[in-house]
Fold this protein.
Amino acid sequence: MEKGLLIKYGEIAIKGNNRRLFENRLALNIKECLQPMGEFWIAKEQGRLFVEAPGEDWTDWTEEAAARISKVFGVVGICVVDVFSEDSFEAISANVNRYIQEHYGGDAATTFKVEVKRANKQYPMTSMELASALGATILEAYPAWQVDVHKPKTVIWVELRGRVYVYSKVIPGVGGMPTGTAGKAALLLSGGIDSPVAGWMMAKRGLELCAVYFHAHPYTTDRAKEKVVDLARKLSLYAGKMRVYVVPFTEIQLSIYEKCPHEQLTIIMRRIMMQIAEKIARKEGALALITGESLGQVASQTLQSLYCTNEVCEMPVFRPVIGFDKQDIVTIANSIDTYETSILPYEDCCTIFVAKHPETKPKLEAIQKSESRLPDMAQQIEKAVDGCEVITVYRGERIE
Amino acid sequence: METALNEIYLDNGATTKPSKGVVAKMREVLEAAYGNPSSLHRKGQEAERYVKEARETLAQVLQADPVSVYFTSGGTECSNTAILGAASSSERRGKHILTLRGEHPATSEPLKYLQEQGWEIEYIGTDEQGRADLEDFRCKLREDTVLVTCLQVNNETGVIQPVQEMGGILRECAPHTLFHVDAVQSFAKMEIFPRKWNIDLLSSSAHKIHGPKGVGGLYIRRDLHIPSFIRGGGQERQFRSGTENVPGIAGFGQAAKEAWDERRRRQESMQCCKLYLYEQLRKSIDGITHNGPEPREGAAHILNLRIKGVRSEVLLHALEDYGIYVSSGSACASNKPDVKSPALGALGMSAEAIDESVRVSFSKDSTLDEMDRVVKACTEIIPMLRRFTPKGRR
């Protein structure tokens, strides 16, 4: 008997002609996430993937592998399965009973049913016949177990596909679509709580990411930059390899500060950030921007402010947390382990140059008029884009 | 990694660069004398000798008996042990403690803890520079005052407390009251003689005098018994268990010896740098004043400046581009003046003034040439920063 992992994927199984594309990418992503453990063998089997150990001397690998795979987007469930070749009814029945003994001890009372799937339609019994026959032997072996075909506490799955697979417990996966199947977007990553969550949510829909961070040395400490890189490292555990662009932003901020009304600082700054992010996105081959904006959370995230900010963008801007309360965002941040890093107390460039009473209902015309006082901005933006420091993160590490 | 050639390190109040002699000594221990001092064999004895030698050096600097010196993990452990230990051993006599405002957290936090446990913490009045008022001190001593604790040199402002006089007053008015001095910023730089000055407990740390981090020395008067908080194998004469940090202790001994032998030259050279820098900065840039004691009167290695219209944290990061390292003494998360800077808060300074204050702290290696370069950098940076003073998050 061997152990293996059966991987269930939801949404992509119902894709049409592109299904193969999604499956191949998912298999590749799983292979990649397991690479630090070794070269695993991944087979596609009728709407599932099956992972086997690279060699026969592998034991106890399923737990760690399942934990890694549960973070791969596109996976909805992972089952640790017992696999054996002998497919006579007696052999299956003996193995199923042994499986129950091993996983449930057999004593505790529970309700159950047996579900059978046959890929091998030549098998002498139908799925229904096999299920009820197996159920009968289980009832005999474990008197405390009772059949409930409607709401059983335990479902024993038996699948015949060349070999026989037995499993019952499903470890939930993260869901979503395989990373890299939806194209690429540029994430405006600030170091706060919201933007890593926004990036994670969009990566979950299959996007590859690159990140854009605005650094205002000496007004912000290099520790703030370090913090953003740490957040990107955490995101890369889910979203794969990504480049972080550190934009030198001080000169632009000072120009705005010097020439524009202070209550408009944040809006003008954000409009310029979007323009820079778009330029970086184009360089990266990305087709959208992602921000962590949440409606009404701060002055720059009122509808009027978002209207003004959005006006400079040509690409679609994804704001996946726009309708979330702070607590909802914090819950996700905790579950993807970015929260503790996000709350480190370094000021970022957004908080350091803010007016006492920033505009909450900016008028686009007024903002555009103020911006006309910045005639060199186009060159300054070019200069900032060209002057970016680029840091690559992959699998939780910074790489050269 | 070698120190960058053009680096000007002026954050010696935070920590210092280990001297060549200290590094050599520690290397010797790490490579050769790696035994455990508790081992009975020769290798153990060899390691023990390094510890003994260091203990004797510290004792010499303090003019004390080597058996009154205990090695710890650093200044904070020393002060915690001294304060909490003194409190618990004299609880029956009273629950009143005198201290100063603006103490280091290694003192103020244990005191806060005691206050929560029902102790009464009272503050000795000071003059406008933060120096203890001896008359007020005398008046506030009570029958049930069991402990007096203060810094000899304040780590932020460099103000020097009259601990010798305070010890004298205690001898005269309250012979049973224990006296703890946190000498982390002054040990082996300035004179402090606990036996002569009637000090019962004294904290010191290696890394402020070009020694290694992670090692401290606690002086406890010989006949004074305070409880041990770290129990185990019985090292440090049953008082502070745990295998001795032999390389650290040897490094501490070496650092203390070098510092003490050279103290006059070092003090003079640091004082010279400090006064020169202050004078040149004031000459070239408007709106620069000092916080705390007159530069001539405070500790030679600490200068606290207020630079009007410039946030210290921004200045600090701008200076780092010139390879110049200073301190803002602020935890940027907090907006409470007394948390950002306890000592400046105690002087009654506003949050804004504290935000504009930097601490420059010198070492034996500081030079006038470096001071000229600091002045030049400041004349370039400060006018630029003053044009843009973000007022958002005060």
Summary: The two ends of chain B are 38 Å apart (CA to CA).
